[in-house]
Amino acid sequence: MEPSTLGALPVLYSFRRCPYAIRARMALLQAGLVVELREVVLRDKPQAMLDASPKGTVPVLQLPGGQVIDESLGIMRWALAQNDPQEWLGQLEDPMQQQLLSVNDGPFKQALDAYKYPERHPQLLAEGHRTQGEMLLISVLEQRLDQHAFLAGVSPGFVDVAIFPFVRQWAAVDAGWFESCQWPAVRQWLQHWLRSPAFLGVMPKYPAWKPGQSPERFPAPTIA
Ligand SMILES: N[C@@H](CCC(=O)N[C@@H](CS)C(=O)NCC(=O)O)C(=O)O
Which PROSITE patterns match (predicted)? Predict the structure, then answer.
């Protein structure tokens, strides 16, 4: 393992706009943890990252002892196992929350990719893929958010952070359509997250990491 030059900090390989990496960083922030952040260029992944996790997806968290966690939900769980100030991990025992996560990460993510890149998924027009996303997840979120401000209940929770970055992408595919769509509670919830310190705190830009460069700390020192 390549030692972190920020002492014994975990190393996070990340990509700023990736929804999986966003939720991992949000959980690290929620847990109050500090890591060395290595911003990855996806078309030119660093060898050190591929050595740690050959499957080549971000985020990847490498702990000082050598353990590697290369699934975003695993990184979220690990972070909150260190420190869980609002007891988010307990929420995962709720089957409804697990169901939301698996729909988001499975069929909804597939519909999202097809909606973003309809030319790669010509079995439907973009609008057809969008309707699939609405039926699979957005309508379910709307129902829930009509009852309380967050998916987890009256306060934000694990599922909110885990799902919001994907809905952010979905809304951005056709922002004009989203602004006038029939999902007002989802729109309000998304607005909350886009303006939240939790999201803004994980979105500062980092230069692409190169071996030997001086290490970058996450959260950025000014907001820690
Ligand atoms: N199941 C993984 C998925 C991560 C993932 O697919 N990340 C994308 C970026 S958003 C990626 O690294 N893709 C590899 C590539 O584009 O080369 C997780 O939850 O961490």
Answer: GST_CTER, GST_NTER
Ligand 1 test: best mutation among 49, 57, 112, most atoms within 8 Å of CB? 57
Segments making up each domain of the chain, as ranges: 11-86+202-218, 89-199
Nearest CA to ligand 1 atom 2: 71
Taking a C-beta distance cutoff of 8 angstroms, is the pair 90, 158 a contact?
A: no
Q: Inter-axis angle of helices 139-147 and 184-194, to 10 degrees?
A: 80
CA angle centred on 200, ends 199 and 201, rounded to 5°: 90
From 25, 58, 101, the mutation candidate for ligand 1 (largest count of ligand atoms within 8 A of CB) is 58
Q: Give the CATH H-level superfamily of domain 11-86+202-218.
A: Glutaredoxin (3.40.30.10)
